[in-house]
Amino acid sequence: MEILPILASLRKHRIPTVLIVLEIALTCAVLCNAVFMIGQRVSAIRLPNAIDEHSLSTVGLSGTDEKTAGSDIPRNLAALRGIPGVQAVGAISTLPLSHNNWGWSFGTSPDESIFNKKTVNFSLFFLGEGADKALGLRLLEGRFFNADDYADSSFGSAPLPETHVTLVTHSIAERMWPGQSALGKTYYTTSHYYTVVGVIADVLRPNIDGQGEASNYFSAFYPMSAEGSKGNLRRYVLRSAPGDRDRVMRAAEQKLIELNPNGVTKSAIYSDMRDQYFADMRSMAWMLVLVCVVMLAVTAFGIVGLTSFWVGQRRQQIGIRRAVGASRGHIMQYFQTENFLLSGAGVVLGVALAYGINLYLMRHYEITRLPWYYLPVSAIVLWGLGQLAVLGPALRAANVPPVVATRSA
Amino acid sequence: MGEGPTGEMHSVFGYYFDLALRSLRRNNALTALMVLAIALGIGASMTTLTVLHVLSGDPLPGRSGSLYYPQLDPRDGHGYVPGKVEPMDQLTWIDGMNLLQAKRADRQALMTGGDVAVQPDNSTLDPFYEDTRFTTTGFFPMFGVLFEYGHAWGDAEDEAHARVAVISSRFNDKVFGGGDSTGKTLRLDGAAFRIVGVTGDWHPNPNFYDLNRKSYNEDEGVFIPLSTSQDLSMAHDGSVNCWGNGGAGQAPDHDSPCAWMQLWVQLDSPAEVAAYKEFLVHYSEQQRALGRFQRSPNVRLRSVMQWLDYQQVVPDDVRLQTGLAFGFLLVCLVNTVGLMLAKFLRRAGELGVRRALGASRRALFAQLLVESGVVGLIGGVGGLLLALVGLWLVRRQPAEYAPLAHLDPLMLLATFLLALGASLLAGLLPAWRACQVTPALQLKSN
Q1: Residues near B200 by Cβ (< 8 Å), separated by ≥ 6?
Q2: Do B108 and B265 contact (CB within 8 A), yes or no?
Q3: Considering only CB atoms, which chain A residues are within 8 Å of B40?
Q4: Which of residues 54-113 of A touch B (CB under 8 A)?
Q5: Is the CB of B273 inside 8 Å of chain A's CB atoms?
Q6: How far is CA B53 from the centre of its chain?
Q7: Residue in B129, B324, B335 nearest the CB of A23
Q8: How far is CA A20 from the centre of its chain?
Q9: Can you give the C-alpha Rg of chain A in angstroms?
Q10: Among residues A356, A379, B57, B108, which one has the fewest Cβ atoms lying within 10 Å of its Cβ?
Q11: Do B249 and A159 lie within an 8 Å CB cutoff?
């Protein structure tokens, strides 16, 4: 297909040409950034989390007497264990994605303060005996806590547990001691230190920041005795077959209320809790999808409208070409190539614009750099869209009979 | 207009309007496409703009200008770079009490959030937890809290650690079935409180005075004196920031190096604001001399709107959505420019005839702009309907601000202005281009 005659013709129709190129460029720029934002949210929603998410339900218990809250735990656990279908139960301070975060910063040398820039902020999880199994934590190296670890740990006056053992996630191990085994290593804050006895697969924090951040997995676990827990082991986790979760959760709620008449319970199936956490993100992603689809439709119809007008204006010209020997295919190809060139120019401009917008968003929001492969993909999408939109008008053009050439417009 | 004295403007405009409607009817598909594009663009931008407008609104119009939030920096020297570090977002118990008792402002209230077990006498209602505000008497007059029944408690009750409570009307409906409940007894965390007031329609959004729980649509049901709440060691709910080797994390005690209180003050003139700021600096120096503070005075005194801005209370997603919607509107506009151009140029013949019959370029231009305006108005109506649907969808979302997403008269007006402005802008270039027709040429070819 010869391009020069097309360019010559486009030069004569400057305004419509510029408009189509501009529309495709804007669509491309908005689309790239919107799809990128959708992608970021989808990957956040799908973040892996190394606990047994689909087997867990949880009941929180509060409002009981502070003084007996600790000693009630073994009794409550025994009652929960008796519920048919329960495979494991444990008491814990918080859960991943529960919004209930207890953070503290630690460093790798003894004189670290919480305000030191070099320290790393962890989320603290306190495990009652058996909670590791109930959660289904996956050990990568070392060991879980033993009975002595649990018995020796308690809360004093500080907001940190009085123990010296800890389990850390793989991400913490990589961040604190890159390239080394974390086993036996110690991390510090002003008054406390903890030695790693085991490294576990990555567990999400109670609150996460964005997607793709290793810090989402900076979760550290500590043993905690029931008596010394000072009301910090308020959440019971129950593991059961997925089909039993709902029944187990209700039975557990009832049992806990029977045993603690003043207590107030709050229960959830873990996978619902996770869905709840990402509900805002999911609705944002859907709204972005909606805008993208509508925008593509508007652009496609815009191309159809302008090309139809164009074809209408050039009926006589087309007739003449047909009369002097051009086939229907030639005419179709003419409009398709023309659209290909226009889309191409639009995409090139659009990609530049998309990068500009991305740079602006990176400065002002928590957004990372647009990956390079968004550009060829969006180019292909817009080229395809243009070809699809031009098909109808091009067919109509191809159907202009050569006899039109003999009539005056 | 060139076609007659200005007295005939109206009828000329009517004529153009009539021409516009005829012309729009002639090209159904193209017109529908333009109207739809404008409606979609306007609908999307107005939905997101309304949400942004609601979320960045003034929580207490008329009052917020004289309310200020003092911040201090009582932390130790670690990590301190003078001039670069913001002071803490909340106050410690000791500083909060000191500033409150200094009474240097016209009004002041010290407060924090709590979570209190409500044990209704009504046996059909199980015990439940209620978001509670522990505060001092200044809260109610300073924030302009409206009362349906009764009144706030006073200084005497604060000092006496009295067991009195103010409840919200929602809470009153839930626990007492509505009506004047003043004088009734309410059991909170096992203690009996006498109800002195029921608040009326008072829902500041964002919940500026304590952004630690929920920024929007927070609905505290119970207000009790701060002093009383501490006597009963009621559970604190909100953020606690400790430094050094601070006390226990979840139940801060009064001496521990932890910030968990909010103080609001009312200052009615710029001079008072300056004087209060001076006072904060002086207080910091004094505390440093006493050895409590280790940093040089690092204070802020932000107004309500400055505080909301500093806390970035409007979610990033809402800003991004708005930006995206306006990008989409731009695409729709460029699209409309193209379609309008196609439409106007297709009528080159008709325009040529009008030119040949003596209509000036300006007259043609005006006629075409009226036509774009009509497209804009119809698109605006469509956009309004779409925005209403969009806001209805937003209200069904799980976000905490969702129930607030309603169109107000200002946004209604903005919708039509935006639609009209956008369509006139879109019509400008095509109308100019179409007016370039040479009358003779068009007559000849037809």
Answers
A1: B146, B147, B148, B169
A2: yes
A3: 294, 298
A4: 62-63, 102, 113
A5: no
A6: 6
A7: B335
A8: 35
A9: 32
A10: A356
A11: yes
Q: A347 φ, ψ to 5°?
A: -65, -40
Listed in sequence order, the DSSP H helices in B56-212 are 93-102, 139-142, 155-160, 169-176
Does the reported pTM lie above 0.90? no
Please report, as a single letter, which amino acid is at residue B185.
T
8 Å CB contact of B321 and A366: no
Burial of A279 (0-12, 13-18, 19+ CB in 10 A): middle
| Chain B CB contacts of A276 below 8 Å | 398
From first to last of its 409 residues, chain A has per-residue pLDDT tens of 578 888 888 887 788 889 889 999 999 999 999 999 898 888 888 999 999 999 999 999 887 777 777 888 999 999 999 999 999 999 999 999 988 888 888 888 876 555 555 678 889 999 999 999 999 999 999 999 999 999 999 988 777 899 999 999 999 999 999 999 999 999 988 778 999 999 999 999 998 876 567 889 999 999 999 988 888 888 999 999 999 999 999 999 999 988 987 778 889 999 999 998 998 888 888 888 988 999 999 999 888 888 888 888 888 888 888 888 888 898 899 889 999 999 999 999 999 999 999 999 888 887 788 888 888 888 899 999 999 999 999 998 888 888 877 775 4
Amino acid at A83: I
Q: Check A15 against B243: CB less than 8 A apart.
A: no
Whether A170 contacts A199, CB under 8 Å: yes
Q: Do A52 and A133 touch, CB atoms closer than 8 A? A: no
CA atoms of B425 and B437, how far apart (whole Å): 21
Contact status of B398 with chain A (Cβ, < 8 Å): yes
Closest CA to B432 of B349, B369, B382: B369
A-B CB pairs within 8 A amount to 135
Q: Which residues contact B88 (CB under 8 A, 6 or more apart)?
A: B71, B72, B73, B74, B75, B241, B259
Positions of E strands within A97-218: 103-106, 120-127, 139-142, 154-155, 161-162, 165-169, 186-188, 193-200
Q: CA–CA separation, B335 vs A334, rounded Å?
A: 23
Length of chain B: 446
Which residue reads 């934002």 in tokens?
Answer: A37
Q: Please tell me the distance in Å from A305's CA to the nearest CA on chain B.
A: 6
Determine, for residues B324 and A288 on separate chains, whether the beta-carbon distance falls below 8 Å: yes
Residue labelled with tokens 């018995």: A151
Could you tell me which residues come within 8 angstroms of residue B126 by beta carbon, excluding any fewer than 6 positions away? none
Chain A positions touching B334 (Cβ under 8 A) are 19, 22-23, 26, 302
Window A:150-169, CB contacts with B under 8 Å: 155, 157-159
Contact A279 B328 (CB under 8 A): no
Q: What is the rounded distance in angstroms from the CA atom of residue A69 to the CA atom of residue B235? A: 15
Contact criterion met (CB < 8 Å) for B342 and A16: yes
Place of tokens 């320290």: A119
Residues paired with residue B258 on neighbouring β-strands, in sequence order: B242
Contact of A390 with chain B, judged by CB distance below 8 Å, is answered with no
- For residue A174, give the H/E element and its range: helix A170-176
| Alpha carbons A59 and A78: distance in angstroms, whole number | 15
Residue A292, both tokens: 């993208």
H/E element, B46 = helix B28-55
